[in-house]
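Retry 2 of 3 after timeout on previous attempt. Resubmitting structure tokens to design endpoint.
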């Protein structure tokens, strides 16, 4: 028999009598009818459900038994006013592999799967080892770890879920399934992670993270020009959250065009000239980071009409 503890068993639905009658058609529901979590290893792993209605009521299931193989139990919750009962099956299993995901350029999270490719819903409580290694055999670090307690994740407005457990693990000298990093230099960094809990220390995964400057182009949206027209782009990068213009030509930025019969562009400068009717794409690449592009489009067209406009010029009057 699998033992489990419930932090809160009932989901309380605070509905008025009129609201109850209108809700009977649908009633309370659990979106995740089947949940997979690991058994207890060194630390128990918990998973929370929450009911986002009036007060935030939560239920927490936590693995407290160690075993091999696959076990299951059921989790029930009853609406104390409508007496509607909902059920979720909880499976306890062992990892067969883990996968490292990159959320944005700052937060890394581990996902785990069993031998049937079912994904575990929670890894909170597991101890993991993270490593940062410069990519391409270099020696310069491009990423640095940011402690969870110093990261923006702590500003969660009281809805931090298991973040307190994850921060406690970091304070103890190990890491959780969540790892926050910041860029310290332009380039590539290899990030690896493996489980510290026996007997799963052989399970590991790694990814390569690209650290790059955010590029933006004026005239990024589709440009419509005539044959023979020449025009230029303005390149800005974000440094310290402040946009800064890049002086062109730049040795770190290479310009090219997808269809050279439609337009041409210098490899180091932004000057573009339309050659023939059709459409193409200008490619701006940061040569320090492979795969970091900006791709504005160009449409070389023949106009249907011309519109003549007049405007009034005003001149300042100088007086003594």
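Retry 2 succeeded. Sequence:
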């Amino acid at each position: 028999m699998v033992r489990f503890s419930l932090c809160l068993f009932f989901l309380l639905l605070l509905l008025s009598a009129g609201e109850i009658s209108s809700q009977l058609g649908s009633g309370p529901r659990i979106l995740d009818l089947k949940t997979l979590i690991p058994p207890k290893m060194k630390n128990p792993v918990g998973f929370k459900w929450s009911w986002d209605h009036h007060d935030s009521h939560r239920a927490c299931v936590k693995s407290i038994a160690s075993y091999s193989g696959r076990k299951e139990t059921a989790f029930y919750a009853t609406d104390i006013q409508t007496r509607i009962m909902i059920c979720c099956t909880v499976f306890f299993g062992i990892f067969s592999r883990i996968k490292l995901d990159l959320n944005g350029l700052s937060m890394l999270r581990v996902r785990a799967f069993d031998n049937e490719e079912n994904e575990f819903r929670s890894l909170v409580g597991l101890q993991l080892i993270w490593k940062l290694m410069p990519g391409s055999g270099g020696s310069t670090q491009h990423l640095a770890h940011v402690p969870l307690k110093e990261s923006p994740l702590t500003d969660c407005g009281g809805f931090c879920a298991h973040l307190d457990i994850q921060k406690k693990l970091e304070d103890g000298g190990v890491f959780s399934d969540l790892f926050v990093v910041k860029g310290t230099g332009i380039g590539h960094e290899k990030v690896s992670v493996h489980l510290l809990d026996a007997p799963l220390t052989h399970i590991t995964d790694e990814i390569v993270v690209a650290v790059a400057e955010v590029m933006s182009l004026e005239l990024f949206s589709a440009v419509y020009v005539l044959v023979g027209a020449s025009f230029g782009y303005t390149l800005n990068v974000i440094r310290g959250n402040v946009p800064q213009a890049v002086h062109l030509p730049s040795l770190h930025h290479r310009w090219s065009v997808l269809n050279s019969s439609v337009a041409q562009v210098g490899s180091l400068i932004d000057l573009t000239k339309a050659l023939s009717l059709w459409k193409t794409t200008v490619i701006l690449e940061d040569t320090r980071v492979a795969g970091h592009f900006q791709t504005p489009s160009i449409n070389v067209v023949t106009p249907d009409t011309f519109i003549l406009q007049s405007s009034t010029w005003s001149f300042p009057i100088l007086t003594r």
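Attempt log closed. The radius of gyration is 29 Å.
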